[in-house]
Design goal:
about 180 residues; alpha+beta; 8-stranded mixed sheet; about 35% strand; binds coenzyme A
Length: about 180
């Protein structure tokens, strides 16, 4: 998928395109628009005041994604910022037919269907890329993730240890509506 548009529940028009190595500034901006709670849910670390070196390294690492791993960013024109980065998704191939998924939507635009749309793209593109098993780690308290999985009708296996849930989705039996 090269580029896709999507309209949110509130009518905001998003453009979703592939993540590129020069996207580091957008990843910084997205991170700046995440609450400490969302940062914790995404990175499983307390990141109220992150170490600048960690932030730079992480943003560069995420942007430097390359095939067979893939990522996407979603952009929108907001009243105070044209072309703002709203969210992102990626899967990182970790073995033959196996990938690790992650997903983020900035706090002020959560709950509008953007995460679900990004997950739909991630799954569709992972299936096209020959991924059979998609894995993710979510905090067991992360209701948005479980509601998204239910909303898309996904069957998944899960196991929880110390408040963290490991999820596995079998893409061979996943048919998105
Ligand atoms: C998880 C995340 C990507 C979901 O993005 P989103 O754009 O809010 O997702 P959607 O709008 O598609 O909503 C998905 C479901 O979560 C629900 N939801 C959204 N925000 C919620 C909240 N704060 N509390 C409880 N449920 C919430 C929505 O109502 C929806 O459920 P429904 O379809 O049954 O109504 C986003 O919340 C996020 O970035 N969180 C921080 C990072 C993270 O948790 N990443 C996932 C782990 S890698």
């Amino acid at each position: 998928m090269r580029k896709k548009t999507f309209r949110t529940k509130s009518g905001l028009l998003l453009t979703i395109r592939r993540l590129r190595p020069d996207d580091t500034p957008y990843l910084y901006d997205l991170f700046a628009h995440l609450s400490p709670q969302s940062r914790y849910l995404r990175f499983h670390l307390a990141l109220e005041q992150p170490d600048p070196a960690w932030l730079q390294e992480t943003a560069e690492h995420i942007a430097a994604i390359h095939l067979p791993s893939q990522g996407w960013l979603a952009f929108a024109d907001l009243p105070d910022e044209l072309g703002a980065c709203i969210g992102g998704a990626r899967f990182v191939v970790t073995g033959a037919g196996i990938a690790e998924a992650s997903l983020t939507v900035r706090d002020d635009l959560q709950g509008q269907g953007i995460g679900t749309e990004l997950l739909r793209i991630l799954i569709t593109e992972a299936q096209k890329a020959g991924i059979h098993r998609l894995m993710a780690d979510a905090q067991a308290s992360n209701q948005s993730v479980f509601r998204m999985l239910r909303g898309l009708g996904l069957n998944y296996r899960s196991s929880t240890h110390a408040g963290e849930t490991h999820l596995e989705i079998d893409l061979d039996v996943t048919h998105l509506a």
